[in-house]
Write a structure and sequence with these properties.
Helix 1 crosses helix 7 and helix 2 packs antiparallel against helix 3. The protein contains seven helices and no strands. The protein is mainly α. The protein has one domain. InterPro entries: BaxI_1-like.
Length: 257
């Protein structure tokens, strides 16, 4: 499997060759091509990935809306901690347990819902704008991938992985410096530099979807067991969470002006 900036897509088990996001075998949609090897477990199909991703994202959205509507903003910190712990368990154990994946999704939904609810009181409508923006970027990058407008090449992969690591280091440095100097490095203070940094993060998150789609595509092609569709859904969810946070932050900067 190709290198990807998303740790949730690394080292997935493989099997035979099957349908991908943009390729269908002679046997028909979701069925093995003639002569493809069989495995003890049913291989993953496009339907598996789409269904599990929709359930995961839908759970997060429902949890977020309910949290924002109920005003239980105090749940933000506990939910963030729970989400972090569950994500580490899923990543390091490479678990395809639907309970862990959905638990992570709900926890992140509560965290994002609480954060959005607080900001929406100050900047009415910002939550809806962030949701629409995130959905638009996701759909746009899926279209770009399926049409082949941008090919996932080793060079592009290295660029995205390097850029992701770079912004991660900058975020950590900004956090550390903020303990000793108000505003840190100026990456999150609403300044033109902060706006530019958020735009950069949004761009990297968007392009990370291409790597995520390609990794999922390769997992389907290689006949990865169907249960790992939950693992792929988790990986896509982590990118969605990052993208939503960056879009929400950028909208906040523009509303402050």
């Amino acid at each position: 499997m190709r290198t990807t900036s998303n740790p949730a897509f690394r080292n997935l088990p493989t099997g035979g060759g099957y349908a991908t996001f943009d390729q269908y075998p002679a046997g028909g949609y979701g069925y093995p091509a003639a002569g493809a090897p069989t495995t003890a477990e049913r291989p993953m199909t496009i339907d598996d990935v789409v269904t599990k991703t929709a359930i995961t994202a839908g759970s997060a959205l429902a949890a977020g809306v309910l949290t924002a509507w109920s005003g239980l903003y105090v749940l933000a910190l506990p939910a963030a901690i729970i989400g972090l712990v569950l994500s580490l368990i899923v990543i390091f154990r490479q678990s395809a347990n639907p309970g862990l994946v959905l638990g992570y999704s709900v926890a992140e939904g509560v965290f994002l819902g609480a954060l959005t609810g607080v900001l929406d009181k100050v900047y009415p409508g910002i939550g809806f704008q962030a949701i629409v923006g995130t959905a638009g970027v996701f759909a746009g990058m899926l279209l770009v991938y399926k049409t082949g407008a941008i090919r996932v090449t080793p060079r592009l992969t290295r660029w995205i992985v390097g850029a992701t690591i770079g912004v991660g280091v900058l975020m950590l440095a900004n956090l550390v410096v903020s303990f000793f100097h108000t505003g840190g490095l100026g990456l999150r203070d609403g300044s033109p530099l902060a706006i530019g940094f958020s735009l950069l993060c949004i761009g990297i998150a968007a392009f990370s979807f291409l790597l995520d789609f390609d990794a999922a595509d390769e997992a389907i092609r290689s006949g990865t067991p169907a249960k790992y569709a939950w693992y792929i859904a988790f990986g896509l969810m982590t990118t969605l969470v990052w993208l939503y946070l960056e879009i929400l932050r950028l909208l906040q900067y523009f509303r402050e002006d």
